[in-house]
Structure formats: C-alpha cells, structure tokens
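In response to the reviewer comment on reproducibility (Comment 2.3), we provide here a single inverse folding case reported in full, input and output, so that an independent group could reproduce the run without further information from us. The structure tokens appear first.
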C-alpha cells in the first residue's frame, strides 16, 4: 500500500512540475525560467525535479513531449473529419503547420525545443507521428492513390515538410504572413506523390 501511495505521489509531483514548467517556458522561455521558481510554484524542491527529470533539460523534454502529443492528437482529429484518406493526410499536415501560430507551441516546441533538445525529427514524439503517417501512406499506395514508392521515405518527407514549415513560421518575423505560403508549398509538394493530381 505504501509503495502504491509513493508511486502516486511521484506521479502527482511529476505532473505538477510539467504543468509549472509548461507555464514558465511559455511565458518566459526556457533560458529565463528558473528551476527554483518552477519548484517553488508547486511547493516542491529541486531534488524532486532532479529525481523526476534529471535536470531542466529533461523537464523541457517532458513538456515538449506532452505538447507534441497534444498537437498530434489535434491534427489527427482534424484529419479524421475529411471525406477521404488523402485529404485527411493533407488536413493533418496543414493543421500541424497552423499550430505554429499558437504562442505556446511556437516558443516551447518550435523555438526552445530544437535549440535545447536538438533535431526534432529525432524526438520520440515525432517518431510516433512518423509511424502513423507511414501507415496512412501504405494504405494510399495500396489503393493506388499515391504512386508506388517506399512508404517510410514518403512519410518522412511529408512529416519533414510539415515540421520544417512550422519551424519556418515560428522563426519568422511575420508568422501570419508566412503561414499561407508554407501551406501552399506543402500541398504542392505533397500532390507530387499522387498517381493523378487531385
């Protein structure tokens, strides 16, 4: 019973730290967010942060993973509303690109995340998106909607195009001006994978 309670407490502390960090990273940015402030805001010590995440970088990785998973879910929900699988795939990509306008996504996932954690295509959360895209691409190839090609290569290029479009938007001086250009280019590139233009 005590072990179960201890595990629950650890999970609660972990969730508190992620919530506090998410707020601080969004408002102040990773570099300006103090570990002492993060822990004090939720009534915990630095030891709890180190125990759960190793360090501030580990905490950022957990926050990025949480937001990235939410982005993927949101994009998939939008894609699921489309009438066919190809348009669903395009809607997912466009939704992901459009999320670059969200201040929290922009600052934490698209600016601080790559600066601190490195190449986003190597993040575990991006790998799960890649596998979902690959399965969709495989079905579209089987249905002869997409040209016969290596499904993983096509999935990597589609995901990479959406990710890089989002990174471009986040880093630009005028994100709202860049968005329609990025979406148009993404759709144009993607339609080159179709058997027939739609």
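Designed residues, in position order:
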């Amino acid at each position: 019973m005590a072990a179960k309670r201890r595990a629950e407490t650890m999970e609660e502390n972990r969730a508190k730290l992620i919530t506090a960090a998410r707020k601080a990273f969004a408002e102040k940015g990773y570099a300006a967010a103090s570990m002492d402030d993060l822990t004090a805001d939720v009534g915990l010590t630095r030891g709890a942060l180190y125990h759960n995440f190793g360090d501030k970088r580990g905490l950022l990785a957990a926050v990025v993973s949480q937001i990235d998973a939410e982005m993927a879910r949101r994009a998939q929900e939008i894609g699921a509303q489309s009438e066919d699988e190809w348009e669903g795939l395009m809607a997912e990509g466009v939704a992901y690109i459009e999320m670059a306008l969200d201040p929290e996504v922009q600052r934490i996932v698209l600016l601080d995340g790559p600066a601190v954690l490195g190449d986003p295509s190597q993040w575990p959360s991006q790998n799960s998106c890649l596998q979902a895209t690959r399965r969709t691409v495989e079905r579209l190839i089987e249905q002869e909607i997409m040209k016969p090609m290596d499904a993983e290569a096509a999935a990597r290029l589609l995901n990479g195009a959406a990710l890089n479009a989002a990174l471009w938007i986040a880093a630009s001086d005028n994100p709202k001006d860049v968005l329609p250009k990025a979406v148009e280019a993404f759709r144009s590139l993607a339609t080159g994978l179709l058997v027939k233009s739609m």
